Amino acid sequence: MIIYSREPKPEDVFTPRSASVNPKLYIPRPDLEEELSDGLSESQHLVIFGESGNGKSWLYKKVFKEKAVFYEVINLVLASTLGSLGAAFDDKLSRQEQLEQKEYELAKSGGFKPGGVGVDFDGTWRYVKGKKEPFERLLAYIRKTAGRQRAVVVFDNFEQISTNEDVCKQIANCVVLLDDPVYADYDIKIVIVGTPSGIDEILSRNGNIQTISTRLKEIPEVERMTPKEAKLLMRLGLEDILKLKVLGNSQVFYDRMLSITDRIALELQELGLRIAKEAIKKDRIIDQNTLNRAVSKWAKNSIRAYCSMVAGRMNSRETKTSRRNQCIYACGMLDRESFTYKDVEKKIRKLFPESTNGVTLNVSGELAKLSKGDNPLLKRLPTDDAYRLASPKVRMAIRTMLTVVDGKVSRTVVEV
């Protein structure tokens, strides 16, 4: 029998919003994978943190699959919506009970018994709700389903409840409860996933930080991809798998993609998908026009609101130097996450030597303005008199929509 394999489509290769790990474009991150894997065998519960889109979910899903770890995810958005962590547990359990009820009916009618779940020998429920409180019922369900596998409950999207004292306290209670012999007997580990650093400190606001911090281990930050990792992802998807051809200097092409996406894994995949679709319309060729069209469509979908924020903070009228525009542009060109006014001033003088030669720059004042008001572009850090961009997408917006022409900051040809 002849088996015909179809040519892969862009959406088969670039899957930015996929809940499951796409093995075609998973770029190994051995140090982080090792840290997470080692943490699973240690006594502390784990914290995975990093900016949105950097690949936290794919990281833990890949490691858990590789290490045969059973896990259930509690989306903390649901806890926020329903008003408590217990309500989110009840929602998870009720959905599983509905699934078991369906399997039970199948078992009665056709003798089907998937995974041993459903009916025992006398036709009664094997899983009885009992009088346990919601967290213990969740642990009981996870342990029953996992069998002898290692098991984890993942609290995901922590940033959604980080300012909700009640839910934070409930999560802290769960961490402490797992030291109680009754709860510890289930042998289940908690993994907390979110964007903020210092999650242990946030959880300890209503209690003793030592009580929480000694029970949690924070693995190193899941940061944006390195240039090597980001380029590998894009080259693998566009050229190796989809067989698209890059015209001109491919290094310049990849450098631009890495710059405007800030090497955020999610945005690299979003832009890669747009580029691939545009290239297929043009005989599978990627040239400058193809890239510009793809970038414009990506920007409208991913960073349009942030482009509006940047535009709203730029000088409203043409001035000789447009110092604020220089500040905004320089902040976007810095590679470091946090910076001081001295870092920005140094960058401005390097980028705009003619208009800054022998001139005193009020960079600290401009940065202060950019960190205030509605939709600030910067966040002032509580320590070190430093700033950081309000979001990585602010950096993407600056790099996408602004350029330097004749010594002045100008809009690019890409329309957003």
Automatic annotation (TrEMBL):
GO MF terms listed in the record are: ATP hydrolysis activity
The record's section on Gene3D superfamilies has: P-loop containing nucleotide triphosphate hydrolases
The superkingdom listed in its UniProt entry is Bacteria
Q: Where is the ORC1/DEAH AAA+ ATPase domain?
A: 43-203
Q: Which InterPro entries match?
A: AAA_22, P-loop_NTPase
Q: What is this protein called?
A: AAA domain-containing protein
From what organism does this protein derive? Roseinatronobacter thiooxidans
